Amino acid sequence: MNVILVGPPGAGKGTQAETIVQTFRIPHISTGDMFRDAVRQGTELGKKAQEYMNAGKLVPDEVTIGIVKERLSQPDCDRGFLLDGFPRTVVQAEALDGIMESLGKRIEVVLNIAVPDEIIIERIVGRRSCKKCNAVYHVKFNPPKVEGICDKCGEPLFQRADDREETAAQRLKVYAEQTNPVLDFYVKKGVVVNIDGNRSRSAVWEDVKKALESYDNN
Ligand code: AP5
Ligand code: MG
User: In angstroms, what is the span from residue 130 Cα to ligand 2's centroid?
Assistant: First the structure.
């Protein structure tokens, strides 16, 4: 099952991804998580990505396409994968078509999680994330059992550098300009399923699960 999760910053992609990958046993490929890991490790990739991320801008296509290409070629993707946050430009979507073709695969479904802008800022500003396992929490909507500590791995939680209100607004602008056309790209291919993300996590999950069950052949 080869799946893409699309949706604005704070739509709940990472939150739903945690349950999708557990249920369907496919790897979670989040370009945002990959860049944040690289920033923490101080690699060349991290140094390149950091300045774009903190400004709420997209990391250049050639850098992003390169890391996804390498990741999708790994053997754990043979039975399927979940892409979260990629592609987010038409250039990336076209490159992904080429990568899929070279691997003899195709994208089966694109889940578009839609949430209005006015809801998003509160979600982003209250988000807390785990540095170690990338689990996602919210101070109000999904608090951890012990304040500031990840339920899953016991590590301290942190607030992402790009989760300040001004940067979040910039990210929404970038999404509207550069990522909305990606959705049209996949609508034309007839693979988009729209999900109303402005409901409880469990209500969203019910729809996500329903949408994915018909593609699960593991
Ligand atoms: P990335 O990490 O991909 O961030 P994003 O797309 O902006 O999305 P977020 O991770 O902010 O939101 P999400 O949809 O995962 O929501 P979450 O589940 O956490 O990208 C970051 C940066 O990396 C980019 O700006 C760019 O610089 C760079 N980058 C990444 N990919 C790139 C690419 N392909 N090309 C170029 N650059 C790239 O939920 C948010 C909050 O809401 C959480 O607190 C959560 O607990 C809460 N929540 C979730 N669901 C619900 C619900 N149903 N009800 C109430 N609260 C909820
Ligand atoms: Mg995310």
Answer: 12
Separation CA 211–CA 71 (nearest Å): 25
Exactly one of 132, 160, 199, 201 is catalytic; which is it?
160
Ligand 1 pocket check for 28: Cβ under 6 Å: no
Cα 95 → chain centroid: 18
Q: What percent of the chain has pLDDT over 70?
A: 99
The pLDDT, as a whole number, for residue 214 is 85
Per-residue confidence (pLDDT) for residue 217, from 0 to 100: 66
Q: Residue 145 pLDDT more than 70? A: yes
Q: Does the C-beta of 129 come closer than 6 Å to ligand 1?
A: no
| Residue 201: active-site member | no
Please give the mean pLDDT across all residues of the chain: 95
pLDDT tens per residue, range 150-201: 999 999 999 998 999 999 999 999 999 999 999 999 999 999 999 999 999 9
Question: From the CA of 208, which ligand is nearest?
Answer: 1
Residues 2-116+165-213, CATH architecture = 3-Layer(aba) Sandwich (3.40)
pTM: 0.95
| Per-residue tokens: 37 | 């890991």
